[in-house]
Write a structure and sequence with these properties.
The protein is about 35% helix and about 20% strand. The chain is α/β, with parallel strands linked by helices and about 500 residues long.
């Protein structure tokens, strides 16, 4: 162990872990600082003997950052399970749930730009570490500033039997088969396009459903830390190549994943993107109508109003949380929820894992569309139209207003102050009928009389302000987005 000063900036965990630019704030030293925070927390909890799962995605040097984190854990005599290859983030949650590890670390920046990497932590339940755990980690990391974290050489620890390399695929497949009829999906006469956006979800869906009649084509299956020059988030324009292929015909639907495969997306047979709020509505409808479930649903403040309408239609309670699965997961556990979702395309399920799983969500969408076909609602575009017939309209879009990284904290503070002091009285020529100031993380939300809403929210992981709108028409949605972006830019 060394006591030489390490220094380093404060490390703050946002809505889903700590993320920063590689070579700038995201360094091996800072990853080790985060790992020491986890190690000390595990020791304080008295759970060190349970070990810690360490996973990593396909980003630049992720496997090396994972090994650096493992070496710190091993210096505290904590056994390590480490991924044998890049894995989806939810596989770390899976290992916590099925093996009972003390916690898990995932090296990923999810959908952030290719220049970034990140550090996620799971709770002992498998859910994203909640605010209390993250606050404890931040406090420990800050107290240890100026000291170099201890390390035990990885090869030495592996030779001593303290390291186990893990491939979760087979166990995960069997786990999924407990709640979903994979043989039924394999037997489907369908052509499916899958786009994992070069991420660690590559190969998982075709492998899970291999050996049957269903046919897959997978785009962007190779590792590419540049992600083809786009953010690996399954939304337009990042997935426009997939949409173009679908529009050319020959496929029944498209299934999409983000860079670490914990977020899901979909497109219909015409290449029309099924936006994230529609996916939330479809999955909730699937569980209610086709699976007959009636447990609560948890959703974030930037999720669709269809949740409330479907909840009322089926007599199911719904619970709203701030943005981030660090809020959604614990709330799901607390309420016994059947599912939880957030606008970014992350969906978790009570019968599965209390954490986002894009692979499982895509499999559920596939099952939904097969059941809708049996009910005479086919093709996929017809099934989506049916959702809106019973749950109401959802014209949704999000605009990201990018700001300078160096000045973002100051701009964020100024915008918060100005919008708090002088909120708009109306939007799109209509008066605001309801207004909520959420928090410095989640911003401001305003509603019009027809139920359309606008949300201005400050990102906790990137230097940008997100402007969201869900409306009863495309024209109103676009007008609300223009108004929201104007509010941000005038304040910035």
């Amino acid at each position: 162990m060394s006591d030489q000063p390490a220094g380093g900036p404060p490390i703050v965990f946002g809505t889903d872990g700590w993320r920063a630019r590689v070579g700038d704030e995201y360094t091996f030293d800072n990853v080790r600082r985060c790992a020491e925070g986890v190690a000390r927390w595990v020791v304080e909890q008295g759970t060190a003997a349970k070990g810690v799962m360490v996973g990593y995605d396909r980003r630049f040097a992720s496997e090396h950052f994972a090994q650096a984190a493992a070496e710190v854990l091993l210096a505290f005599d904590i056994p390590v399970l480490i991924a044998a290859q890049p894995i989806p983030t939810q596989m770390t949650s899976f290992e916590v749930v099925t093996r009972g590890t003390a916690t898990a670390i995932m090296i990923t920046a999810s959908h952030n730009p290719w220049t970034d990497n990140g550090f996620k932590v799971k709770s002992p339940t498998g859910a994203a570490a909640g605010p209390e755990i993250l606050a404890a980690l931040e406090s420990t990391i800050a107290r240890q500033a100026g000291r170099v974290p201890p390390r035990r050489p990885f090869d030495d620890a592996e030779a001593a039997g303290l390291v186990e390399r893990v491939d979760p695929f087979d166990a995960y497949r069997d786990y999924v088969a407990r709640t979903l009829d994979l043989d039924r999906l394999r037997a489907a006469d369908l052509d499916v396009l899958v786009d994992p956006l070069y991420g660690s979800g590559s190969g998982w869906i075709p492998r899970l459903l291999a050996g049957g009649r269903i046919r897959f084509r997978e785009l962007h299956a190779e590792r590419n830390p540049y992600f083809g020059g786009v953010n690996p988030e399954p939304i337009r324009p990042n997935i426009d190549e997939a949409l173009g292929i679908l529009a050319g015909g020959g496929y029944d639907l498209g299934l999409l994943l983000d860079g670490d495969a914990d977020r899901a997306g979909a497109a219909d047979e015409r290449g029309t993107f099924i936006h994230q709020l529609q996916v939330m509505g479809l999955l909730m409808y699937y569980l209610l109508e086709h699976r007959g479930m009636r447990e609560p649903v948890v959703y974030t403040v930037n999720e669709t109003s269809m949740v409330e309408r479907l909840g009322a239609r089926y007599g199911v309670p719904v619970h709203e949380t701030p943005v981030g699965f660090k809020f959604v997961g614990p709330r799901m556990i607390e309420t016994g929820a059947m599912m939880g979702g957030e606008e970014s395309g992350g969906y978790g399920f009570g019968m599965h894992l209390p954490e986002r799983d894009g692979i499982y969500a895509d499999l559920l969408l596939l099952d939904l569309f097969l059941r809708e076909r049996e009910a005479g609602r086919w093709p996929v575009s017809r099934a989506v139209a049916h959702l809106h017939e019973i749950a109401g309209p959802s014209f949704y879009l999000r605009t990201d207003v990018h700001l300078e990284r160096a000045t973002y904290p100051q701009v964020k503070a100024r915008l918060w102050s100005e919008l708090s002091a002088r909120p708009p009285a109306g939007l799109d020529g209509e008066p605001i009928v309801r207004s909520v100031t959420l928090s410095t993380a989640d911003g401001f939300k305003w509603w019009l009389a027809d139920g359309s809403w606008l949300l201005v929210r400050f990102s906790g992981t990137e230097p940008l302000v997100r402007v969201y709108a869900e409306a009863t028409s495309a024209d109103r949605r676009d007008a609300l987005l223009v108004a929201g972006e104007r509010l941000v830019r005038n304040g910035a």
